[in-house]
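User: Show me a protein chain along with its predicted structure.
Assistant: Here is one chain, sequence first, then structure tokens.
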Amino acid sequence: MADVIPTGMYSKPLSALAELLADCESFQTWVGVPAENAGTPTGVTAAKERIHFIAYEDPKEGEPGDSVEECLANRPLAIVGFGGDAEAERQTEPPSYDHSQTIELSLENAQTGDNERDIFLNFMNNAGDIFAEIEELTGTDGHLLISRHRIIEGPGRPTDQLVAEGELPVIGATWEIEWSQ
């Protein structure tokens, strides 16, 4: 478990998106949480193990765990990162600031099978289920209030996925998520 508690205006939303994602039963199912644990604190904890911040790197060639099979066993996964846009706008009545920020969320999964169409559709079906649940949960029970989301990269194969045995068969996409208070 992490030792640092997010307390700042830039770290809290990143952590809140990870919490929201971990609370989604569709994400829990996608990352392999057993059905009897989905929607429970055990399922949320297991889902958090598949959520990474800023980046996720597979072992480099020659490092332990660098085989294609071992790298694929670490998927599916999510990566939460800072999108680059953050602003605070001063309001006069009452005197305060309204904050908004852009967060990036990437989802990756192993490509299984040979049919590219089925691989693509299966990935997008899972992503669609996850985002439908995010839309249901946003702003409820203390969850992050998401005002907009859109795909900004992919879906496709990340270009930097190379391991000792060659190209890693992974499919992924990145979404830009805007939140506001």
